[in-house]
Amino acid sequence: MQIYLPIAEVSVNAFLLLGLGGMVGILSGMFGVGGGFLMTPLLFFIGIPPAVAVATEANQIVASSFSGVLAHFRRKTVDLKMGTVLLVGGLTGAALGVVVFNYLKSLGQVDLLVKLCYVVFLGIIGSLMFVESLNAIRKARGAAGGAPAKRRQRTWVHALPMKMRFRTSGLYISVIPPLIVGVFVGILSAIMGVGGGFIMVPAMIYLLGMPTKVVVGTSLFQIIFVTGFTTMLHATTNYTVDVVLAVLLLVGGVIGAQIGTRIGVKMKAEQLRVLLALMVLVVCGKLALDLLLQPTELYSLGAAGGH
């Protein structure tokens, strides 16, 4: 069933979009990521212009994350205090990111920047997560009969001023690292159309030392507001939010998030991280190939036509 997307100016199969939304919703519920880092490149692959994909995907993430957060609220695995600190940073970063995005759009460089950002970030994050997750699995097996492994304590993060107590996470740390993480994720949200969970989740576990079970819900809580704000800014300054595309992705995403949350509870944290890392690396590889292969074909055609 082909459907015409007015803002993207392309025709796409409606069931394909519903399926993509559902798949990314499942990931959202399982891993605590908005799923935009996978969905936005998938939209590139089916022919949606990057500027439209980024702005519209931010919209879809709001719904799938909201659906996932409700499930986590019921389990009391959301640290609202930490989420609020991350959110202050996130909103600031999102506003900065939209300014940069609009400037690059006026130069005509936004498509290339978005794709390059994806290749760089997905490559780095995917590799680091994959190595770390394998180490965690190995340690878990080694410690199966011995004493339980202790979580890392006392890093440079604990030495910083402006400390605050986060009871749900069992932490007493400075608000500076969460604020910086929030700003960084907000900028990425605006430029790449992502919730930033693929950076937020590892940062919360390894940098802030939060327990994995609280990280997912807290990450989703922050993502809802930052991506909602980003969508609003894109819609009012760029006019690149495609409502038809957003609705189809939304429906799939909300259903998928509920399924994903149930699957996530049944799997070990280390296994979840290995799966997520592999997915990130696969998408990164496909995007890198497209960047390397496509221009040669396009420009040779243009040259042949005396363009």
Quick description:
The chain has helices at 14-31, 36-45, 50-74, 80-107, 110-142, 176-192, 197-207, 212-237, 243-266, 269-304, and strands at 2-5, 10-13, 163-166, 171-174. With 307 residues, the protein is mostly helical. The protein has one domain (2-143, 153-295).
Write the layout of secondary structure elements.
Blueprint: E1 2-5, E2 10-13, H1 14-31, H2 36-45, H3 50-74, H4 80-107, H5 110-142, E3 163-166, E4 171-174, H6 176-192, H7 197-207, H8 212-237, H9 243-266, H10 269-304
Antiparallel strand pairs: 1-2, 3-4
Helix pairs in contact: 1-3, 1-9, 2-3, 2-10, 3-8, 3-9, 4-6, 4-8, 5-10, 6-7, 7-8
Describe this structure in words.
The chain is mainly α and 307 residues long. 74% of the residues lie in helices and 5% in strands. The chain has 10 helices and 4 strands, in the order ββαααααββααααα. It has a two-stranded antiparallel sheet with strand order 1-2. Helix 4 (80-107) packs parallel to helix 8 and helix 5 packs antiparallel against helix 10. The two termini are 36 Å apart.
Task: Give the fraction of residues assigned to helices.
Answer: over 70%
Number of strands: 4
| Domain module count | 1
Tell me about the biggest sheet? 2 strands, antiparallel
Q: Quote the beta fraction.
A: 5-15%
| Global structural class | mainly alpha
Following the backbone from N to C, one meets helices and strands in this order, namely EEHHHHHEEHHHHH
Mean pLDDT: 77
Rg: 20 Å
For the largest beta sheet, what order do the strands appear in spatially?
1-2
General form: globular
Q: Low-confidence parts lasting 5 or more residues at pLDDT below 50?
A: 146-151, 296-307
- Rounded to the nearest angstrom, the distance between the terminal CA atoms is 36 Å
Annotation field: number of helices: 10
